[in-house]
Every structure is written in structure tokens, then in C-alpha cells.
Amino acid sequence: MSRETYQVPTGQTGYTGAGGVVEGTTSDSVSVTYVCGDCNSRVSMKRGDQIRCKECGHRVLYKERTKRFVAVCIPPSLQATNVLGPVGN
């Protein structure tokens, strides 16, 4: 593609990732909760916020685990064998 035909993508339309799925959100009101690596306080952040704890100013934040149910399907061939080794005793 030549430089003359390149069009700069706009931030409002999202972007088409692999598989043709449109990624991104239209509203910036979604906040994600992180845990500070220093003082363990919960920090709620929105897109564009500075990555910094609001209590102590520490810059290492860890994303909390999801609260969604995650199901694991074990194939029958692995159910009969003890993959993890002996349990308990």
C-alpha cells in the first residue's frame, strides 16, 4: 500500500482484529479494578488514567481475577489416568 492511499483509522469505529471481530468499546465509562503491589488497596481505573495507586503513588498494579465462572472440560481419556500424580495420603 502506498503512502498516498493510506487512511488513518479513527478511534470511534473500533478496529477489526483477527477474524473480523470489531474490538474496542464505544464508551469510556468502563472501569477495571486493580490491586496495588505496595499497599494492597483497590484502585479503580478507566481508560486513559495514569497507572498509579491513588493511595501511595506506587506504579505496579495487578489486575484482579475475574468473578466469572470458568468451566474446564476434561476429556474422558484423561479422566481415567492420574495426570497430576498421587493425591493426598
TrEMBL record:
**GO MF terms held by the record:** DNA binding; DNA-directed RNA polymerase activity; zinc ion binding
Similarity annotation: Belongs to the archaeal Rpo12/eukaryotic RPC10 RNA polymerase subunit family.
Presence of the UniProt keyword Hydrolase in the record? no
List the source organism. Blastomyces silverae
Q: Where is this region: Disordered?
A: 1-20
Task: Spell out the subcellular localization from the entry.
Answer: Nucleus
Entry's InterPro entries?
RNAP_P/RPABC4, RPABC4, RPABC4/Spt4
Name the major location. nucleus
- A Pfam family (short name) is Zn_ribbon_RPAB4
How is this protein named in the record? DNA-directed RNA polymerase I, II, and III subunit RPABC4
Instruction: Specify whether Nucleus is a keyword of the entry.
Output: yes
Q: Which UniProt keywords apply?
A: DNA-directed RNA polymerase, Metal-binding, Nucleus, Transcription, Zinc
A GO BP term, please?
DNA-templated transcription
User: Polar residues compositional bias: what residue ranges?
Assistant: 1-13
Q: What are the record's GO terms for cellular component?
A: RNA polymerase I complex; RNA polymerase II, core complex; RNA polymerase III complex
